[in-house]
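User: Hello! I'm new to structural biology and keep hearing that structure can be predicted from sequence alone. Could you demonstrate with MOSC domain-containing protein? Please show me the input and the output so I can see what each looks like.

Assistant: Of course. The first part below is the input, the amino acid sequence of MOSC domain-containing protein. The second part is the output, the predicted structure written as tokens.
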Amino acid sequence: MTAAIRGSVMSVSMSASHDFTKEPVASILLVEGSGVQGDAHAGATVQHLSRVRADPSQPNLRQVHLIQAELFDDLAHRGFRVSPGDLGENITTRGIDLLGLPVGALLRVGPDALVEVTGLRNPCWQIDHFQAGLLKAVLPRDDAGNVIRRAGVMGVVVRGGAVSPDDAVDVDLPIGRHRRLERV
């Protein structure tokens, strides 16, 4: 791994229930192999309700949801009002192109935590209940008609630790050939 990118935590959020949005809090505790302590999506196996119905034994590759604050800036220019936690993310970052990271990138978050990026978040239709037209804004299509997923990345907790706003986020990129993120 090589350290190449540095950003920061803008906000942290969690929810003990399976709500669409998560409440911003002063800090969260990432737990190795599980996710955000007290969050409805924490667990070694999948916690997303539709995925639990399909196969509750599958590994939870979506323990932590991260979104770049720059998405909120872009959405504001398009007339949307989105704040940290509104789209269900646990960690809102600034200064890192999360969507451009490869599978396996390691995020050193705060003084101790380590999160491995597993893939892209795939938002569902519920996002339009939050604000009409928002799904299309976070899932636009390129000139060839391919979907561009802009709603953040998912990861698993490799090493636990407390995370708070203004903590540093350092990215360690995998050595060798990088695999592009796909939805998880």
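User: So the tokens describe the shape?

Assistant: Right, they're a compact way of writing down the 3D structure. Reading them back into a model, for example: The radius of gyration is 15 Å.
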